[in-house]
Design a protein that fits this description.
329 residues; alpha+beta; Arc Repressor Mutant, subunit A; SH3 type barrels; 4 domains; 10 helices; 12 strands; 35% helix
């Protein structure tokens, strides 16, 4: 049986890490009772127990967790390493302290008191070993209004739908859409809202610094069963196999393009060669790219492919010719 709807691999792992020591200390508990106490169905509990056969600290049979629930009672063995209390090393403690301090600075965080309590306990337990944490600073993701971030988080907690006015750079326009929010996540220095977009009828990521307006609606915002969180381990951009790779030369004054759009590579141009950047990016639709380059007014140039460079040049020439045809222009 697969994990419950909407359940991510991380959520299932968290449940298993809680479940194993709980069962180890309740050997022989009734299967139905265990499922009820753990807040899952008996089918889900059985699926989790089957998964445990593949888990352990090694690959040999005696290194894997044992689970038996025949006869309606649950027994879990060879899991003492998971059942023991967690003991942190110095590096782990310092990493957690630095992370919690950074978390306190997250805009719109409602659980700051809980973070403060956890941080105080961790610093007290670590003692002098936590001293290196004072010399380390972690930067939290930026971008996006703290007020809008707080609204988004409140909508998620209350299961409310939100109305967004969202800027789409690829089309150089602002769109309006209703979204059932799923999570707020920080990636590569930016905050994103992920949710089920009723306009696209699919899951979408919305960069919070491109949200012009966010209103929490008095409408149930529970995402539909087909809504799934995207795996963001490799970032937010998902290029298609047939996307075109474009190389751009960005002069000083246009280098902001490398921060605003998803680029694959960035190379600095020496000052004695004019400065700026050379970047590569991939796109399925070059129309927005042409509009961007015309807007840059010569501070951005397509180096390759040649056909896109020709399209940009010809479009600019047509625009100039149209101006010349207007009296007094």
């Amino acid at each position: 049986m697969p994990p419950a709807p909407h359940e991510t691999a991380t959520a299932r792992l968290a449940r298993l890490l809680t479940m194993v020591p709980w069962l180890v200390n309740r050997q022989g508990i009734d299967l139905v009772q265990a499922a009820a106490d753990l807040g899952v169905s008996t089918e889900q509990l059985e699926a989790d127990l089957r998964l445990l056969f593949l888990c352990g600290y090694g690959q040999m049979p005696d290194e894997l967790i044992e689970a038996d629930w025949e006869g309606g009672r649950v027994f879990v063995g060879n899991a003492d390493s998971i059942a023991r209390p967690l003991r942190l090393g110095v590096d782990e403690a310092v990493t957690l302290i630095v992370g919690l301090r950074a978390l306190r600075e997250v805009p719109g965080l409602d659980e700051r008191d809980a973070v403060d309590r956890a941080l105080a306990k961790l610093e007290s337990a670590a003692g002098d070993a936590a001293a290196p944490a004072h010399r380390v600073r972690a930067e939290v993701a930026g971008g996006g209004s703290p007020e809008l971030l707080a609204r988004a988080r409140r909508a998620i907690a209350d299961r409310r739908r939100v109305y967004l006015r969202y800027v789409v750079p690829a089309r150089d326009e602002a769109t309006e859409r209703d979204v059932d929010p799923m999570r707020v996540v920080g990636i590569d220095g930016q905050w994103y809202l992920e949710g089920w977009c009723h306009r696209a009828e699919d899951t979408r990521l919305f960069r919070m610094d491109r949200v012009e307006e966010l209103t929490v609606l008095d409408v149930d915002g529970t995402p539909p069963p087909e809504a799934t969180e995207r795996d963001l381990a490799d970032g937010t951009f998902r290029p298609a196999p047939d996307d075109v790779t474009v190389t751009l030369r960005l002069l000083p004054g246009a280098t902001w393009v490398a921060d605003y759009y998803a680029v694959d590579t960035v190379r600095d141009v020496p000052a004695d060669e004019g400065g700026g950047l050379v970047v590569t990016l991939r796109t399925a639709d070059t129309a927005w790219l042409r509009r961007l380059l015309w807007r840059l007014g010569g501070r951005g140039v397509v180096l390759e492919p040649a056909d896109i460079a020709a399209e940009v040049r010809e479009g600019a020439e047509r625009a100039l010719a149209a101006y010349a045809a207007v009296p007094g222009a």
